[in-house]
Design brief:
Number of strands: 2
Mean pLDDT: 82
Distance between the termini: 58 Å
Strand order of the largest sheet: 1-2
Order of helices and strands: HHHHHEE
Largest sheet: 2 strands, antiparallel
Number of domains: 2
Shape: rod-shaped
Strand content: under 5%
Helix content: 55-70%
Structural class: mainly alpha
Length: 157
């Protein structure tokens, strides 16, 4: 589990995106349930609408349990996979806004600060060629292309 203090990453933007996605799932479920209840019962659409409303509610509950709650506890790595899985499922339930929000939350959770693998230390780049040549006799700097020291005449190359 990654604690917010250990990496400095709080995950607030990912949590906000996930909350917005849960709100769109709730609105979608309400619309499907409304369609299922108020459409003509002789139509084949109401049972389908009620089923889609139930799937949307199930998706909302699962997003909360498997993606949002781990983020709230600081387990950002554990919330990454459920977030992208529910983004795909939201696309299947014809909710592209929720899918987009969850995909963005997944992207936020993929920030480099969350990567638990140790990083190699960064070193400054090594110069390819020396910018000055130092004479071993008089220790004066000389241009790298100079064959002899300009101060004492010692052969540098």
């Amino acid at each position: 589990m990654t604690s917010p203090g250990a990496t400095g990453f709080t995950g607030s933007s990912a949590r906000t995106l996930t909350r917005a996605a849960m709100a769109t799932l709730a609105v979608e479920a309400a619309i499907w349930f409304w369609l299922g209840v108020y459409l003509d019962p002789r139509d084949p659409v109401p049972p389908v609408a009620l089923a889609l409303g139930a799937f949307s509610m199930l998706g909302l509950v699962l997003v909360y349990l498997l993606a949002y709650r781990p983020m709230a506890r600081g387990d950002f790595a554990g919330a990454r996979t459920p977030t992208i899985v529910f983004a795909g499922l939201s696309l299947l339930l014809a909710n592209p806004l929720s899918a987009l929000l969850l995909a963005l939350a997944h992207h936020e959770l993929g920030s480099p600060e969350l990567d638990p693998r140790p990083r190699p230390p960064s070193f400054p780049p090594t110069p390819l060629a020396p910018t000055v040549g130092i004479c071993p006799i008089c220790t004066r700097p000389n241009p790298p292309s100079t064959p002899f020291c300009r101060s004492c005449g010692y052969a540098l190359h």
